[in-house]
């Protein structure tokens, strides 16, 4: 299968989903349809809070906990975000969510898997299951797919960690979090999730596209822990600077 994929790639080279040029040097592996130059130019979230992955000034050393987490510790236990929510990353995610570019999920999932393998697994025990942040049924029908689920499929396939598709439902069709301030986001998402069945899972990994203030993943972590889950982690494409 790998040999066949390499042969197809040489005969029909893919185009970079960012610059639209033929991918001569792929980023990380052949499955990522982003050229190496574009990948390296993306705003990687290298300097961030060790608890919530909030982007921090680049001159701050790694291993720092941000002031927000010191003041009010999140209910999730750890979080990793590949990029900062800036520039081309915003365009990439918007195309995936709103531009019906569902095929982008494969490249994004592959990039997240690399982070999962290199940064998360060496530090954490392997999660029992993956839970994509669920959409309300109404929004799911409108969009046709859940972008977090499509990304999670790639990671699940690579790691053999099951996706708990029916573990959580979004019972309220909350208004979009876009444009809301931190406190408004907390109130908007409060009580939005119902736990259906988390079986005997003790360690759950949440997959999300963008973490802004962390209100959504924190509320989901709250619901999971109230139902007996002991450890909750988060893996996302991008983390945005907090706006107050």
In short:
The protein has 244 residues and is of the alpha/beta class.
Number of helical runs? 9
Low-confidence stretches: none
Query: Which whole number gives the mean pLDDT?
Result: 86
- As a percent range, the share of strand residues is 5-15%
Order of the strands making up the biggest sheet: 1-6-5-2
N- and C-termini, Cα separation = 49 Å
What is the CA-atom radius of gyration, in angstroms?
18 Å
Give me the secondary-structure category: alpha/beta
In total, the number of strands is: 6
CATH class category name? Alpha Beta
How would you describe this structure to a colleague?
This protein is an alpha/beta fold and 244 residues long. Helix content is 37%, strand content 14%. The chain has nine helices and six strands. It has helices at residues 2-11, 36-41, 67-71, 87-98, 104-120, 137-143, 147-159, 182-189, 215-226; strands spanning 78-84, 129-132, 168-170, 193-195, 203-211, 231-239. The protein has a four-stranded parallel β-sheet with strand order 1-6-5-2, with helices on both faces. It is globular. The termini are far apart.
How are the SSEs ordered, and which strands pair?
Layout: H1 2-11, H2 36-41, H3 67-71, E1 78-84, H4 87-98, H5 104-120, E2 129-132, H6 137-143, H7 147-159, E3 168-170, H8 182-189, E4 193-195, E5 203-211, H9 215-226, E6 231-239
Parallel strand pairs: 1-6, 2-5, 5-6
Antiparallel strand pairs: 3-4
Which key phrases capture this entry?
9 helices, two-stranded antiparallel ribbon, four-stranded parallel beta sheet, 244 residues, 14% strand, Rossmann fold, alpha/beta, 6 strands
């Amino acid at each position: 299968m790998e040999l066949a994929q390499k042969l197809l790639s040489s005969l029909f080279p893919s185009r970079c989903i960012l610059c639209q040029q033929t991918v001569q040097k792929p980023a990380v592996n052949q499955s990522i349809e982003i050229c190496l130059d574009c990948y390296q130019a993306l705003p990687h979230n290298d300097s961030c809070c060790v608890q919530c992955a909030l982007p921090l000034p680049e001159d701050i050393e790694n291993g720092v906990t941000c002031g927000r987490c010191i003041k009010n510790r999140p209910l999730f236990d750890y979080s990793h975000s590949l990029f900062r929510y800036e520039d081309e990353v915003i365009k990439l995610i918007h195309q995936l969510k709103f531009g019906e570019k569902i095929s982008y999920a494969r490249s994004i999932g592959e990039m997240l898997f690399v982070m999962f393998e290199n940064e998360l697994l060496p530090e954490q025990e392997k999660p029992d299951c993956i839970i994509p942040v669920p959409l309300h049924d109404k929004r799911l029908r409108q969009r046709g797919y859940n972008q977090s689920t499509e990304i999670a499929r790639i990671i699940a396939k690579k790691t053999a960690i099951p996706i708990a598709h029916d573990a959580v439902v979004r019972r309220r069709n909350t208004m979009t979090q876009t444009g809301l301030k931190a406190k408004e986001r907390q109130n908007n998402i409060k009580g939005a999730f119902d736990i259906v069945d988390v079986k005997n899972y003790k360690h759950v990994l949440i997959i999300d596209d963008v973490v802004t203030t962390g209100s959504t993943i924190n509320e989901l972590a709250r619901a999971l822990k109230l139902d007996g889950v002991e450890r909750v982690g988060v893996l996302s494409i991008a983390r945005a600077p907090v706006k107050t």
